[in-house]
Amino acid sequence: MYSEVYLRLEPLGLERVAAAVRAAGHDVRILDLQIFRQDDYLREIDDFAPDAIGFSLNYLANVPEVLDLAKETRRRRPRCFIFAGGHSASFIAPELLDHAGVALDCVVRGEAEGITPRVLEAVGDHRLETLPGVVTRHGAGPGPTLLESLDHHLPARDLSRRRRKYFIGVLDPCASAELTRGCPWDCSFCSAWTFYGRSYRKASPEAAGEDLARIREPNVFLVDDVAFIQADHGYAIGREVERRGIRKQYYLETRCDVLIKNRELFAYWKRLGLHYMFLGVEALDEEALRLHRKRVTPNENLQALEIARELDLTVALNIIADPSWDEQRFAAVRDWALTVPEIVHLTVATPYPGTETWLTEPRQLTTHDYRLFDVQHAVLPTKLPLHRFYEELVNTQAVINRKHLGWAAVRGAGALAIQALLRGQTNYVRMMWKFASVYNADRQFGDHQREVRYELGPRRPLIAAKLRKGELFVHAAPAAAPRPATG
Ligand code: B12
Ligand code: SF4
After folding, report:
1. N or C: which end of the chain has fewer CB within 10 A?
2. Pick from 270, 237, 267, 274: which is nearest to 252 by CA?
């Protein structure tokens, strides 16, 4: 739903894996099914006749689609080696293999630039299931290993086609880049930190500069979970950007306390082209922030918004709606959102594999349909009747959005919107009228009534036992990794 309206960004992880596989001597193609249709995929495998196909499965909601495609691929190309990897695949490898039957040969857990060329070498060999991070129906190798350096395997952007389709808001077209990997915080609803064992690694300023210099698009989305945690790293990349004369407009995601602490760094990047940021606000009250283990106060959130306004940065922020919300609670968020100039998004609190709440949430799930685990649907019991909950959710989002959609917003975006149109880029302008057709209470309610063919495995909530965070990790925590203060 998100990528139907607000943005569509390139599959950076897949491009990095593709770069590693290509460097090992293979002929590689990428097909992004956010842009292409399934028919295009089937034509492509007939035409290219690959020996191996890897599916990138970052989002849980895409599991059924990937399983069906893997099965159809197996039917058409029985001898092809078919595998999957990515963020969500890494947390649910055995259950994916169960659903897939013979359609998937293995799942590759964790970051995969290093291991995928070795997986391809081991095709047809019993050593396959002894490789780090590899899980097959017959066994699993040791846990995945972290890359020694982020500087290698710069994304093979030349392999992604129809790049004009990638955009985020008015940054149209827009490429993506990664300056750091991992997150040292530990919010209870998030799996970004559990994937990398709460580690945090940086690309060298030279490699980051080289990667940014290779980008053709005028705009760049920085995919880092929390951008510019360490000010010296942010300045070093900035100086590299200046030295190379790179001129782009940037969009990034960061935390409120990081913006407060590194205000001058963000001001410097504003001069380099930073215009937009996602700020992880998540909740307005102290109690909810504590439950999310956000480690910031409501006051810090407001202070960060103030700083962003002073720096003239356009901010989008997210609030997590709990299924227990009633009309009054939605109304309170609406009232607040209408008083601030920022773009406010709502997501729905969703425990999913890899998050701490998957194990600690005491409420029962109302569904195990993977497709509904997209943080836009309620998978926990709602206090309001379900359809009424969606009416409140959509109505709240629509009221808030009114100030950011339509011609007034296009006029507000000014030169950037006009430049995009002059370049023939219409993603942004089209998005302005799409909201009502995508976010719709009947549609969201109807999504719960569909036939369910693949179900997420059962949850084993912790009752009395204390959670050991390491149990959640895909990558084990590195022994002596320096961890920035998390406040
Ligand atoms: C950038 C990002 C986005 C971008 C989209 C990027 C894209 N086109 O894929 C935007 C902003 C659009 C976005 C949106 C959303 N996102 Co997001 N996003 C991220 C983020 C911060 C980084 C992903 C990234 O690019 N990392 C850098 C690359 C290099 O790493 P990577 O993709 O993980 O790839 C590595 C491995 O996964 C693996 N790998 C990847 N592909 C493949 C393929 C094969 C064959 C193999 C072997 C290995 C492999 O190797 C790669 C290299 O090491 C992650 C958090 C995280 N740290 O992972 C959340 C995350 C993936 N997003 C999340 C969510 C919830 C969403 C939204 C649903 C949020 C919303 N408000 O609606 C939407 C849905 C978007 C959609 N497409 O439907 C959740 C996923 C939850 C889940 N389990 O499903 C995450 C984990 C964040 C979180 N807080 O928990 N997101
Ligand atoms: S700070 Fe952001 S990326 Fe890090 S754990 Fe919290 S929500 Fe996830």
Report:
1. C
2. 274
Tokens matching residue 228: 């510019």
The sign one gets for the Cα dihedral 93, 34, 5, 312 is positive
| CA separation, residue 125 to residues 40, 51, 105, 169 (Å) | 31, 15, 12, 47
Ligand 1 pocket: which of 131, 157, 195, 223 to mutate (most atoms <8 Å of CB)?
Answer: 223
Are 67 and 96 spatial neighbours (Cβ–Cβ below 8 Å)?
A: yes
Q: Measuring from atom 28 of ligand 1, which residue has the nearest CA?
A: 13
Query: What is the b/e burial string over 446-481, where b = at least 16 CB atoms within 10 angstroms of the residue's CB?
Result: ebbeeeeebebeeeebbeeeeeeeeebbbbeebeee
User: Which residue shows structure tokens 């980008």?
Assistant: 215
DSSP per-residue string spanning 138-170:
S-B-SPP---S-TTSS---GGG---GGG-EETT
Long-range contacts of 98-101 (CB under 8 A, 24+ apart): 99/63, 99/67, 99/454, 100/67, 100/70, 100/71, 101/71
pLDDT attached to residue 333:
94
Cα gap 328→315, rounded to integer Å: 26
Three-class secondary structure of residue 280 per DSSP = strand
Residue 487: predicted pLDDT = 40
3-class secondary structure, 40: helix
* Entry pTM: 0.95
Strands 106-108 and 134-135: antiparallel
SS3 call for 487: coil
Q: How many Cα atoms are found within 13 Å in the side-chain-facing hemisphere of 43? A: 5
Say what angle helices 38-48 and 63-76 make with each other, to 10 degrees.
Answer: 30
Kindly identify the ligand whose nearest atom is closest to the C-alpha of 349: 1
Distance 473 CA to ligand 2 centre (A): 14
pLDDT of residue 433: 67
Query: What does the alpha-carbon distance between residue 351 and residue 406 come to, in Å, rounded to a whole number?
Result: 34
User: Which ligand 1 atom minimizes the distance to the CA of 8?
Assistant: 12
Q: Encoding tokens for residue 448?
A: 């719960």
Q: What is the pLDDT of residue 405?
A: 60
209 φ/ψ sector (left φ>0, alpha ψ -120 to 50, else beta):
alpha
Output the six-digit token pair for 30.
Answer: 């990428």
Query: What is the SS3 assignment for 353-413?
Result: CCCHHHHHCCCCCCCCEHHHCCCCCCCCCCCCCHHHHHHHHHHHHHHHHCCCCCHHHHHHH
Residue numbers of the chain with a pLDDT score lower than 70: 2, 403-412, 432-433, 463-465, 480-487
Atom of ligand 2 nearest to the CA of 184: 4
- Residues 318, 25: contact at Cβ < 8 Å? no
| Residue from 414, 89, 93 nearest 249 by CA | 414
Burial class of 211 by CB neighbour count within 10 A (0 to 12, 13 to 18, 19+): buried
Report the SS3 class of residue 271: helix
